[in-house]
Amino acid sequence: IEQLCGQLTAEDVIVPESSGGAGEITYQAFRLKQGQKMKNAAGLGSMGFGLPYTVGACLANGGRRTVLINGVPEAIVATVISVAVCKALKAYMNKRASADA
Q1: Distance separating alpha carbons of residues 80 and 88, to the nearest angstrom
Q2: What does the alpha-carbon distance between residue 21 and residue 3 come to, in Å, rounded to a whole number?
């Protein structure tokens, strides 16, 4: 968590979800920078919940880079997909904003 904190920027949105351990450890050890946002789903979700939650957090925050912290090794693929989806959504939102202007 310490190394991750050093690599993230103040504009990043952090989503520590899909596993109780991922959330609990992150909330205890993470050092938020001014301007950073950390999302919390108080009820936690079922397995696989982190991916759609991360995409929603990205959209709700105007396409800001959104990082999913997941405690399940199999979720690495889902995290990479999530980042790609968020980049595509940000590009779409920028294109739409340009067309509306």
Answers
A1: 13
A2: 18
Can you tell me the distance from the alpha carbon of 101 to that of 15, in angstroms, rounded to the nearest whole number?
Answer: 32
Quickly tell me which residue has 């993230």 as its tokens: 8
Question: Taking 80 as the threshold, does the pLDDT of residue 88 lie above it?
Answer: no
d(CA 42, CA 44): 6
Structure tokens at 40: 């919390």
Q: Among 53, 46, 48, which residue's Cα sits nearest to residue 15?
A: 53
Task: Give the ranges where 1-101 is alpha helix by DSSP (H).
Answer: 2-7, 20-29, 50-60, 75-100
Q: What does pTM read for this prediction?
A: 0.62
Pair of tokens at residue 7: 């690599």
